[in-house]
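U., I forgot to send this yesterday:
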Amino acid sequence: MPDPEGAVLAFDYGVRFTGVAWGEWHSRICRPLLSLEVRTRIQRWEAIQHLVREWSPQRLLVGLPLDHEGQEQTTTRQCRNFARDLHRHTQLPVTLIDERYTSLEADRQLRSAGISKLQRRSQEHAVAAALLIEDFFGLTVQARDALLSSDHPDFFTAALPEVSDV
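Result:
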């Protein structure tokens, strides 16, 4: 079974903005880092490589956008592709995690803190990424083991040289 312990980086992927958060398994501490706003794929991967070097995660999480009924939507495929590319670029294990309602909750938290609409727009994705980590840390042992199992269709492991389309 893969060891989930250590630092994780989470990504709330978007075509324009990608939120990034950091968390540490033992302390259960997590915090939003930033929302990447990049114009090109090259800029995105350079920024991500820099974050991986700086924060030294053992695992990466990517939010998987599903509709309110748990069904896939257009952006789901984009996130799967991003997760696969993230694994290929970093050679780190990547886990997709249900991100339903994280953006709404992030917006609610920022509104409650009195953050302006303009600032919320740039911070929302990073806060949503932190919520992904909180969700991951809050999973039961059985649910986490199932999610991290190589039998799970959304499990990407660094031990595999090539990841098939999921």
